[in-house]
Design a protein that fits this description.
The chain is mostly beta strands and about 350 residues long. The chain folds into two domains: about 10-170, Sandwich (Jelly Rolls); about 175-335, Galactose-binding domain-like (Jelly Rolls, Sandwich). It contains three helices and 22 strands. It has helices spanning about 10-15, 175, 275-280, and strands at about 15, 25-30, 55, 60, 65, 75-95, 105-110, 125-130, 135-140, 145-155, 160, 160-170, 180, 190-195, 220, 230-245, 260-265, 285-290, 300, 310-320, 325, 325-335. The strands form five sheets. Strands 1, 2, 6, 7, 8, 9, 10 and 12 form an eight-stranded antiparallel sheet that branches. Strands 13, 14, 16, 17, 18, 19, 20 and 22 form an eight-stranded antiparallel sheet that branches. β3 and β4 (about 60) form a beta hairpin. The longest helix has 8 residues, at about 275-280.
Length: about 350
């Protein structure tokens, strides 16, 4: 398992959390939720611990926690993924569960767009693995396929703070057809590759919907040196860019003064080194020339404002000099096989 300088395995850096509640993942079933509900396990924010906080069932915990079993069984939970996709690996996070974490876990998956039932066939993607207290447990997935749901089995009981299912959304080419779609969207497979700074967060820049507050987007620290901030996005598919939307929702005293967008076709290979992408991005062609931005507004750029540079797989959003952007949308038609 490859680990980068930030401590994340490669599959976590190169994929999307398909079990993100913020993207639309939802709890379906849990054998028990006595101490803490399943929905907490899908939250995007890191788990927190509140000393001395109790509810009617006992200590308040940020995650999913079952009662102590007194039989020979084990607990499990079923989660509907945000979108159908291929799974690369998992993070079973037991943050703050120190004396009440499960001894082990296993994970299965199924393809049941209408929801699993008693006849659903489940495929094991992770065999039984030991868990430890208050730690991330990264496991690569062991099977191939396209999946809509996962089933987390815990042995025998206990609490899981967060479950993250890293993977790639499966593009429905027939359903999309030849219509322009937002290929930067996380739900289609767009993902952030790297950025100059993300001091106040960056994960939600490509999420669906408008931001709900100033913490729901990408925001850099205040720049005190020459230059500007930037973020690079890998699009879900090769496209000829037709329209770009930059939304500064909720950013009022800290929105960027201006923005521009560069783009390039650097292929689909996932093994492309991030540092090489960053270096080459300095020379990518400009698809949107520098534009003034305003506070708490949707900025929609299309038509003659978009430079035709041919096909692109990646875009670089430049902001001048720093600040916050809630959402980035990049619309285009998917280039089909054989398109030069």
């Amino acid at each position: 398992m490859t680990i980068d300088g930030a401590g994340l395995p490669e599959f976590a850096r190169k994929a999307i959390n398909l079990a993100s509640a913020g993207l639309g993942a939802r709890p379906v079933l849990a054998t028990d939720e006595f101490f803490a509900p399943l929905e907490r396990m899908l939250q995007d924010c890191p788990a927190v611990f509140h000393a001395g906080v109790y509810d009617d069932h006992g200590k308040w915990m940020d995650g999913w926690e079952t009662r102590r079993r007194r039989d020979l069984g084990h607990d499990h939970a079923i989660v509907a993924l945000a979108t159908t996709g291929r799974i690369a690996g998992f993070d079973v996070d037991t943050a703050h569960f120190t004396g009440n974490y499960p001894s082990a876990c296993a994970i299965d998956a199924c393809l049941a767009p209408e929801g699993p039932n008693d006849t659903t066939v489940w495929t094991e993607l992770l065999g039984m693995n030991l868990l430890g207290p208050s730690a991330h447990h990264f496991f690569p997935a062991q099977g191939e396929g396209v999946w809509s749901h996962v089933r987390l089995r815990i042995y025998p009981d206990g609490g899981i703070a967060r479950l993250r299912v890293y993977g790639t959304p499966e593009l429905d080419l027939d359903g999309i057809g030849d219509e322009p779609v937002d290929l930067a969207s996380s739900l289609l497979g767009g993902r952030i590759v790297t950025f100059s700074n993300g001091h106040y967060g960056h994960q939600r820049l490509l999420a669906p919907g408008r931001g709900i507050n100033m913490g729901d987007g990408w925001e850099t620290r205040r720049r005190r040196e020459p230059g500007n901030d930037w973020i690079i996005v890998k699009l879900a598919a090769r496209t000829s860019i037709e329209r770009i939307v930059v939304d500064t929702a909720h950013f009022k005293g800290n929105y960027p003064d201006a923005c521009s967008v560069q783009a390039a076709d650097i292929g689909e290979a996932e093994c492309t080194v991030d540092a090489a992408i960053t270096a080459s991005s300095l020379y990518w062609r400009e698809v949107l020339a520098r534009q003034k931005l305003s506070a708490d507004s949707i900025h929609d750029y299309g038509g003659s404002m978009i430079e035709d540079i041919g096909l692109a797989t990646h875009v670089r959003l430049n902001i001048y000099p720093d600040g916050g952007v809630s959402r980035l949308r990049v619309f285009g038609r998917i280039a089909r096989a054989g398109t030069p």
